[in-house]
Amino acid sequence: MLKNYFKVAFRNLIKHRATSFINIAGLTVGISAAVFIMLWVQNELSFDNYHQDAANIYRVKTKLDLTRNETWIWESSPYVLGSVAKKEIPGIQQYTFLWPGYMVTVHNNGKLISEKKYAYVDANWFNVFHYNFVGGSAESFTKNPFSLILTQSTAKKYFGDADAVGKTLKVDSVNYQVQAVVKDNPANSSFQYDILMPVEAKLSNPHEKEQATHWGNYNGLTFIKLQPGVSTALIAKELTAIVRKNNKGSENTTLSVIKLKDMHFESDLQSSSFEHGNRRLVNVFMVLAVLLLATACINYVNLTTARASVRSKEVSVRKIVGAGRLQLFGQFMSESLVVSVLALVFSVVAIQVFLPAFNTVTEKHFTQPLTSGTTWLILLGTLLISFVSNGLYPAVLLSSFKPLIVFKGRNALNFKDAGIRKSLVVLQFGVSVMLIICTMVIYRQLHFMQKVDLGYNREHVFTFRVPWTALGFDEKKRVSMLNSIANELRGQSAVREVAQSGEDNFYNNGTKMSGSMDWDGRPADYQPSAATLAADENFQKMLSLKMKEGHWFGKGNVDQHNVILNETAVKQLGIHQPVIGQRMKFNGDSGVVVGVVKDFNFRSLHEKIGPMVIYNHTDWAAAFYIKTAPGNTAGAIKAAQDVWSRFVPEQPFAYTFLDDGYNKLYHAEQRSSTLITAFAGIAIAISAMGLLGLAAFAAEQRVKEIGIRKVLGASIQSIIRLLSADFLKTVLIANLIAFPVAWYLMNKWLQDFAYRIHISWWIFAAAAIAALLVALVTVSIQSIKAALANPVKSLRSE
Q1: DSSP state of 473
Q2: Backbone angles phi, psi at 491, to 5 degrees
Q3: Where are its TM segments located (predicted)?
């Protein structure tokens, strides 16, 4: 019987080729899109789950309660915390410490290579976290303070196919021995480090050791493995007590713990060493996967039920010759299964073809997902959903026909069935319109962020930093070297302007601890925080910063201890008028306020402009800002590289344009915009295919009516209006339903930005027009074909 089911199913597919193509094509696109989305979702939700005992591993986090309802939350904690906590808190099984690095230079065959993905770890790291060793061991790594562990790809980069274990690699000025090689970090790991070094190597520097062993130095991340069932609230309380006991004046410091598995979605940190996900975005894309699959399934349901009247005689004959309703139900479910399986096969091909493009957009590294059990679970899950969704309602409807009604010439379908089909079309186009609106709002916000006046000019400016290892700690030598580099750069014809700062990442200006500022009139209990920026006398002119009052720093050391405030700092700190000349003690130096600069966005537009203190300590201003001469950007970069090679020959030259740094702030939004645009296009394509099929069937069902109307003198335009009107009304209803949903979603999304666009009415109008045009063009294809048909042929059978 099953064989006969599938034989009949294939016969019907071939018989109704156009409908079959629309169903299979729509499902293929829908399943492929849903699988791609769920691959990404599964990757995001599985971050760091692969570690053994991941459920019992936590990271310590620090909360500082400042004055006037201001709170900082850090992922870092003191280096000395772990060892003390292990001794004093019984519930801690093990601890380990991670010290993320900034950048090191690896010397390899005469080449200088910058490595940013490196970190220092202590001896317990591999007792807490899982790594797959392909050479060497963790034991040998912990015995030698100048050891290295490399990932496989990094080992191959430096040593080719030779065994890297035992080889020597020069990092900065120190020779390290490779003690082990591990498999590359999984894509769902927070720890994307290619080089691991012992903490002892960093502590071999007496200055670093003195800093690290101070309880007030929050320089790295402490992880603890707890015994099952231990109260995390109690652990947090005891950790807080340890810090407060050992670090006087830390009564406003509270420690807590976060599960390793929850770390990827942390959103309350001041800054982080890791890339974090967005749980809200994950939820949105999960819903989107369901909606895309649903729009594809709707095509099958609508086209199958629309053709029910054509197949009603077939069903009636089968019932008369003895077929039961269960058998007919099985027949129609088998047709659904055949269509779903064929769509799945084509989806597997599509996934392989489009995987590289998907990896590029999402910046993931899915390799051969079809060899993964997880991928096949997702594929089989979508197959089951599509099979049941496609087949259930049509099978119940078609198997319920009564032969007597059919043979009397009455329509086997009722008004309710047509209403269900229209409702499903409304859902399809509603999803499409919603995605169109979301795409337009996101694009407009991104465009706004590119064009908004930030309060400074970032064009044609690139930055680079001279590393501390090249400068040393001798102040005279350091200042002399920085001045020499600046003078050399100013002498280059391709360089228009040169300025110095303490930070090469303009959008990452650090925030000083509260209590580092004092001024006349400050309340005794008010210890505010403020972003800080070290800048020389040329910084304001280069970036076109605008002064509200006072002046910028003068040449030389005339303003060495003076400061400049932004407008927000004047307001929030409550500086008395007149501001200029007010005493300001900052970082232990006493000076006066010499100027107020107009507010400028020194961070992401997600954040409101906060208070900023600009100071003139150029002895540590190791970051150079270069404005290129018009049309000679390449020449300016080459000139800077030549100067660098003369002063810092042991380090590779690396630079960043301010434009690139600014765009990087909104990289996640750009990626989301690309994905949503693609999925909006997919939803519209699926909906249009379904509408095309319904329009073709509607024209086929009314072919005699159209013939009679043409004989009676109806124009082609009137027939097109007749066939298009119902479909366009349905799409219009879809617009009205999609509008409030899209407005709500986009309004929630825009709330994450301190500076945002307003959702204009014309966005909804444009989305509605786009959807109506797609529907009109789609339906018109069949309407024009029907209107141009010869009425004699359609009436000949009457």
Answers
A1: S
A2: -85, 0
A3: 21-41, 281-303, 337-355, 375-401, 422-443, 675-698, 719-739, 759-781
